[in-house]
Amino acid sequence: MHEDNSVQTPLSPFMEDNLSLEQKLRLVDVYFMATSGFIDVLTRAEAAQLVRHQSRAELSVTCKGAMGDLVIAIGAQASKPDPTLAEVEKFYFNRGQQRAFSTMLRNPSIDMIATFLLMSFYMLGACHRNAASMYLGVASRAATVLGLQHQESYFSVTSSERQQQLRTWTSLRVLDLLVSAILARPSSAPPAGTSDNLFNLIQDESTDRKDLVAQYSLVKIIDEIIDKVYGQKGVSPATAEALLSQLRKWSDSLPDGLQTQGVSASPQHPVQALSSLHLACTYYFAVTLTTRPFLISTLTARMARLSNGVPNGYAVQEHPVHAELASVCVDSAVWMIRACLDASRSDLLLANMCLMKAFVFAAALILGFSLFAQLEVDLETDAMFAGARDILQTFSARSSQAAHYYEILTSLTQTIHRQRQRFAMQSRRRSNAYVGQLFKTAEPSPRPQQDQSQTDASNDDISNLINNAKFSDLDMWMQNQPIFNNVPEQSDMVGADLLGWDSLDLGLWDNFPYMNQPPS
After folding, report:
1. Dihedral, CA of residue 31, residue 37, residue 41 and residue 47, to nearest 10
2. Euclidean distance between CA atoms 468 and 466, whole angstroms
3. What Cα–Cα distance (Å) separates residue 240 from each residue in 86, 121, 377, 468, 493?
4. What's the whole-number average pLDDT of the chain?
5. Where is the region Disordered (predicted)?
């Protein structure tokens, strides 16, 4: 995820009365769409009550008041671009943040944890991942102080208080583990302890929290994937297949209302539809995390074979089990992008979706690397890669992070087409022994970077896009990547000997195009 280092500009004068109650309630609706399946710290009725009474003095210095402000800020952040909403978003977030900090250390509470969860979610959407991680850390420390990881802490409270605590704890674990997996950072939340019993409580008592319960079950598997696959930097097919079996069992146990087949058919229920989409994309992300090392292993062998000029030979064998798991990885990325495109066609996607941007980009990298190493064009993978680029271009109107990812995919598109041109030329040279190239012009020198209007105009013609773009940093980086220049040993285990293990980590791509430059 990209870090926005831009300097914050002074706020324009804004009065709370400039926003009507009806407008506030519409932003509350957008908030629930944006956070569905990830955060559940307020009911719809509680959120509506908070925004109705924001100006009351008793709320001005409490976490409840901060939560009301943050609900509006997140709703404005996820809404379609509007100059007036930009002021609304900044005003309510700044005020909510100020209210949260005024009492945060004096009295840790469930409301404080919820407030810092909301601030973290907002910061992810604002492309401030470091601040988001720090806010998650504060929420996690408060949860530890309150003992939310222990079942005993729930015995002496009322049923409604217990449900609020369980929802808050579950939301914390979901967001913390997802952000940690995306950013490749350690989790800040306390260990689960006896929280499985707490999970059973919320599962038994809350029939209207099925999406959060399912998401919690899924991120527990993701936590195990991170530990077994990436924590040890070595994974066997048996381990990967066991993890995939857990994921399959999870998907088979989903309630009918959360099945993803109805996402595009239910725009009249946007919160439920987006919750299903969030669950589906998290599931596909988990599958790609499990199988990604095997994709890298397979691409290594494939590129070594193609580079040696034996596309159909046996000089470098792909491990058959690795190839099968690599196919699962690509298929999962395809399914994720297809689900997002279906949601986009149904007008379900919001203008800013902080976790979905990372999911889409991660899937697009998998598709792009796969296309780069293919001799023949896979039309479906090609179409889904282009679809991912279109989705991120749409998100880029409200997100510098999405704009950054879109630029990378544009460069990757050019690199893939150049690679195809090279493959075609090599094949032509090998297949024709009677005729060859007699005339060739010198390679043109790199042209100055085009302005945005020129680039946009050329996007309609991929040939112009390739010919007019300079030989990019991405071309150089891709050609020199260890995964495309090292022949893997014939081993059942994928591990530390694979030098390109982290080639698809989002953290690496956050620094593009400066990935190869030494620190100054």
Report:
1. 30
2. 6
3. 45, 31, 28, 43, 11
4. 80
5. 441-462
| Own/partner pairs, 143-150, CB within 8 angstroms, 24+ separation | 143/113, 143/169, 143/172, 143/189, 143/190, 144/190, 145/108, 146/108, 146/109, 146/110, 146/113, 148/113, 148/172, 148/190, 149/190, 149/191, 149/192, 149/193, 149/194, 149/195, 150/193, 150/194
Element containing residue 77 per DSSP (H, E): helix 63-78
Distance CA 267, CA 51 (A): 26
CA 173 to chain centre: 16
Q: What distance in Å separates the CA atoms of residue 202 and residue 210, rounded to the nearest whole number?
A: 9
pLDDT in the model for residue 84: 82
- CA 336 to CA 387: how far, in whole Å? 11
d(CA 53, CA 24): 11
pLDDT at 71 over 70: yes
SS3 78: helix
Amino acid letter, residue 261:
Q
| CB-side neighbour CA atoms (13 Å) of 35 | 33
Here the tokens at position 405 are 């990812």
Crossing angle, helix 21-35 and helix 63-78, to 10 degrees?
Answer: 80
Neighbour tally for 152: CB within 10 Å: 8
Distance, in Å, from the CA atom of 63 to the CA atom of 118, rounded to the nearest integer, reads 11
pLDDT of residue 422: 80
Angle between helices 159-183 and 354-372 (to 10 degrees): 30
What DSSP designation does 494 have? Answer: B
Distance from C-alpha of 33 to C-alpha of 145, rounded to nearest angstrom: 31
Q: CA-CA distances (angstroms) from residue 254 to 147, 210, 212, 216, 249? A: 30, 9, 12, 12, 9
Question: What is the separation of C-alpha 264 from the centre of its chain, rounded to a whole number of angstroms?
Answer: 20
Q: Provide the 8-state DSSP code for 374.
A: -
417-438 CB burial, b ≥16 within 10 A, e <16: bbbbeeeeeeeeeeeeeeeeee
Q: How far apart are CA 119 and CA 132, in angstroms?
A: 7
| Residue 134, phi then psi, degrees to nearest 5 | -65, -40
The per-residue pLDDT for range 462-498, each reduced to its tens digit, is 344 434 444 445 555 555 555 455 444 445 555 434 4
Looking at per-residue pLDDT, the higher value among 457 and 343 belongs to 343
CB 292 within 8 A of CB 303: no
Show the tokens assigned to 1.
Answer: 């995820």
Contact 87, 113 (CB under 8 A): no
Q: How big is the chain by its Cα radius of gyration, in Å?
A: 25
